[in-house]
Queue: 2 jobs
Job 1
Amino acid sequence: DAGITQSPRHKVTETGTPVTLRCHQTENHRYMYWYRQDPGHGLRLIHYSYGVKDTDKGEVSDGYSVSRSKTEDFLLTLESATSSQTSVYFCAINHPPADTQYFGPGTRLTVL
Amino acid sequence: AQTVTQSQPEMSVQEAETVTLSCTYDTSESNYYLFWYKQPPSRQMILVIRQEAYKQQNATENRFSVNFQKAAKSFSLKISDSQLGDTAMYFCALTGANSKLTFGKGITLSVRP
């Protein structure tokens, strides 16, 4: 258990509404990641953070923004949700020295 | 760009038997890590095993072992004495810069009683 929680665990929203997902960790890890999981695609990186206020884009960042104002929280925002963003979202932390990522329980997001 | 390929979408194995899941990858990095993750129906991503690319010795964790062929860029997972609880989706993954992971598409493993 890497002390990672995600909230909410499930959310249903409507197209065009803003949505924020929260990832919280308790072990002061520097690196945090957001992935989405879709059938036939495995997990794909959306954004990641390498410190407070330090973030960068991943493979599928369009339509998403992130913020990290404190070490323990990494927020993922969908500014205007679309049906293509219906997915399961995972947060992860990186645990050195072996570059191993541990994952939160996931958030299932449905955009109607 | 890094790629991870899992070409078998599904496999099935009889309980107590051995099964091997295949994975190939491509990377330009000289130092990297490879992983197998398990995702049971609960959806939780669980680390199964990790391999450092600079180590020639294959990693082993109880009933799980890997066959790491660096020159061939191959990284297969062997599960011995399969158990019903091994039924899950398995993902092969590779680290890149800033420890970002690239995943394969996954393989669904079913263990038959």
Job 2
Amino acid sequence: AQKVTQAQTEISVVEKEDVTLDCVYETRDTTYYLFWYKQPPSGELVFLIRRNSFDEQNEISGRYSWNFQKSTSSFNFTITASQVVDSAVYFCALSDSNAGGTSYGKLTFGQGTILTVHP
Amino acid sequence: DSGVTQTPKHLITATGQRVTLRCSPRSGDLSVYWYQQSLDQGLQFLIQYYNGEERAKGNILERFSAQQFPDLHSELNLSSLELGDSALYFCASSASSGASYNEQFFGPGTRLTVL
């Protein structure tokens, strides 16, 4: 069975600090996809990034960066110079891939990390 | 705005009742997913439809059912409601193939409160 673990339940930082959100996953699939979603106080889920299991390149998008390490089954998310608007719940998710090779795409989510950025 | 719409935004009902949640996917998306978010269970996958057909099922209760209509909108029906069904229900849609490499775009959710 697939599993995603976000060990940090809550993180509190002061604005401009860097913060890293950890994500560890378990899967028996050789092909899989990892995602990060943001859930701001308004409640909607906002897609941030997708990474496939064949691509271990790190990615940077503005103040956001992601570090994917297959050897440790981790897909960590770093926010540089955090801002109050970054306050939200962040979810790491793993996408399903069945044995027949046809992907259905259902997401297995971690429990989420509540990030609070103080001014 | 993700382009996925859900109605209603809020729903308050009593135990034993039946409700229907509605979702319209993004234009062109054939795949619709339903998720439940609760404090004790977190975000859990319920069911997926692709172009009108059921594709995958998660831990969806027998009291719950869903369907996708020819115009691609989807409805999630919850019956014999219990207090524990109170949750935020999300609908998501993804690009045509429904393959796992397509990110899912989530609607704003329907908050269901069962009293």
